[in-house]
Every structure is written in C-alpha cells, then in structure tokens.
Write a structure and sequence with these properties.
Helices cover 36% and strands 18% of the residues. The chain has seven helices and seven strands, in the order E-H-H-E-E-H-E-H-E-H-E-H-E-H. The longest helix has 23 residues.
Amino acid sequence: MEERDITELVLGIHRRTSIIDSFLGEKIEQLLRSTNRMVVMSRCFIPLATVTRILVAVPKKAQFETGFRRWVQAVGNLGRQVGCRVEFWCEDSTAPLIRTVITQSKLGIRMSFSTVESYDDFVIKSSEINDDDLLIVVSARRSSVSFDSDMDAVPEYLQKYLAGNNLIVIYPGQFGTEPPMTMAETMATDIVSPPNPVFLFAMNQLRRLRKMLRKASGRK
C-alpha cells in the first residue's frame, strides 16, 4: 500500500461477522503489522443519512499519535456530510486539541465533549447509545503511545452489548514525521482538510439512498 501512496484503508464488516473475530482475529493483527496507514473498519445497520448523532470514544494520549489530525478530520467530514452532532468522549486534555483541528479545518460541525478517562467511564457512557447513533471507537496499535491494556476488553464488550449498533473502529496512522499536537497550535494558521475515505464512504451511502428514493417514487 505504501508503494501506491495509499494513506487510509477502509474495510466493511459483514453484519453477521463477530466483532471479536473482526477486531481481535489474526487477520486484523496481520493487517496492522503490515501497514502503518490509518485503518477504518465499519458496520452500519441503517443508512448513514438517518444517523442522528455520532459518538466518538477517544483513548488517552490520542493527541500524541502522528495520525491524530487525519482521523479527527475524517470524523469531522463525516459529521458535516451527515449533518448531525458529533460528541467526543475523551480526556479533558485532549478535548481542546480536537476542537482546534475541527476549527482550523473549517468543518463547521456541531460538536460537544464528555469527559471519559477510563474503560469504566466508557461502559457508563455507552449505556446512552441509541439505535440511530453511530459509535466510532478510536483504537490503537499495541506499539503506539495511546495503547492501553483496557482496549483488549472493548471488542468483547461491543460484541456482548452493542452487537446491533452502528459501529466504526479507527486505527490511526503511525507514519510520517508530523509532530504531536500541542496547546500552542490553537494559535496556528488554518489548514485545508484533504478528501478521505471515511468522507467518501458517507458520500457513497448518501448517493445510494437518493437512488433508492428516486426509484421508489417512480413506482408510485
């Protein structure tokens, strides 16, 4: 993938596939070892256009990953296209840096923040998830700075309690020389958000929904 200059890899997960098999299986481990690019795994039970809220679970120290800006921009682009509020579950120290990326990228989305600092906090917050929400879990490779041993418990929890919910799992990129985000960057100049696969995925879903609606109206 590096030879073709691919920066993200987006994978769809079959609805009947176990979350544990998808996120803890040998195949995903091999994939993560074989590339440093951002990997996005998605499974939705409803059209993205009908999602009313995007909930983003962010790990500790996420801002120190080189792929931090890219995944924040990806989530922001998705929220802008769907037109719903994006709520970030993260540490208080991470929230202003996420806000900075969103603001500098001129995405203009509605966003809010809830303090989540541990796996127990995540479990409590997840009880608020509705069927028309989209949960995005930002994970981490085992060798990365934001990896936490509590992450090993997340796939089993998702399989047991959220198997029927809309889900995206993001493994941020681990490449390049981009420095970690700092508080000083709240004074930085504007940056331009590049197109990315999560945004394109949302666009394709919306186009498909429009085609279905046109066909349905034509039969009446």
